[in-house]
């Protein structure tokens, strides 16, 4: 079956990308290569080919200018000084200063162009990463830490930014210089040049050995940064819990352990670099010794001039500069490679809930939802539903009750297709949920849960989230229908009131009414109420019930509730235990049945709360409703 993922997958190109750790599984596979990272970056940089071409031309010109300056030194020593050509000294001065000025101008242009290209590449990468995260299903976020994901989108991308903005410019410039100088040196004296180049394989081998260890250490550094970020996010979100349990010292100790891991990993990186750089410097001095000894021997035999030796030493410095620079920026490159691996782990993660290639757009529905022999488990060892059958009649209120863990919320998640069943099928108006597009399905479903999600912003922005393009009048009408306009207009800023992080400036009842207003504004055909009033006081619950009465009018509604007072008017009530329906009927029928529902009802409403009425008297009153 052909399936598609809606996320932009541009950054999945480039060599060496096949070997990354599978995100969230713990399975380690071959790491991505630095070559793959550069190929991936280039595949996007080449889209800016005009700027890239101009930068390459500037760097080529800079290489030629760097090549020209030692030639002026050679000419001065070998010709001008012996010939006492005082008149040509001024030309040499102009040549050196002119070359230096042009190097500065060309360096500014090339650096600016490369930096702009790099920022555009990172802009695309960060947006691709965010879009891909948005495309992944709920199960991915169930097994992921929010702090770790935030670290990948921010810290790891920023590390790539450092490499592209500075290190890549240096690498490209050094590549041009190294190639030009090496060719010229071979032309001047191939014997001396080959002796000099004999030190380079040792440099490459040393770089490979240390590079692998550095990248492993940087991987630990960045994972520890993610741990710190995750701990910080949890601690700041739960600061009231921490203070109420006076666990500040405990949390500080936990945070200290995470930062200690980061400290140790950084120290290991510094030690590796401290060992690596002296080795590279020693090999560079070995090259200098070769030039001095063998060059002096050739000069004493009359086969090379002093000026040529001086120029050769200058070229040697230019030839060794790329190696010296690389030894300095290898930290940045290996850190970027580790960050690139972590980014690619996300981009290579495929959503489990995807649309078929030929998925149909779900037309406006009546809302009849049927579970046909559905099997579902979050993991194979613990099945939640087995051969499960359920029907939600269109335009009616269906309630689910039962013990915690009986599968009530799972049923709601399956209807919204946050998960797919492992067996059986779920249909809405006869359409299999797997045969329709996710957007057309979820656009017709509204969810109001106990766990209210509000964004840091204004009240009107949070309500408008139900329909992004709704007018202010439509937002106010939804708020009024949700019985929320009264308390909103009582605020000095009214609908423009800032509600704080996760709506911390609002009471539980106020937050719930805003979430209901958001659902009303969406105007869905199917409503899911997942413990929508479980944590509210009696007065707030009354306001919510009044708001819900307008929301549920004429819609298919699934109510999940522990508080049986909220579902007594439901058209159908299903009692679940361990993923199976053990009873179903109306409230009155289930009370008369004297089964599990009756037991739950009597636990919540003792005889004293029912005014001392007998069960039969109560049953007659219920039937009269």
UniProtKB/TrEMBL annotation:
Q: How does it sit in the membrane?
A: Multi-pass membrane protein
Where are the membrane-spanning stretches? 52-69, 89-117, 171-188, 194-211, 279-298
Where would you say this protein principally sits, based on its record? membrane
Keyword tags: ATP-binding, Membrane, Nucleotide-binding, Transmembrane, Transmembrane helix
Where is each ABC transmembrane type-1 domain found? 54-335
Q: Key word Transmembrane present in the record? A: yes
**This protein's name:** ABC transporter ATP-binding protein
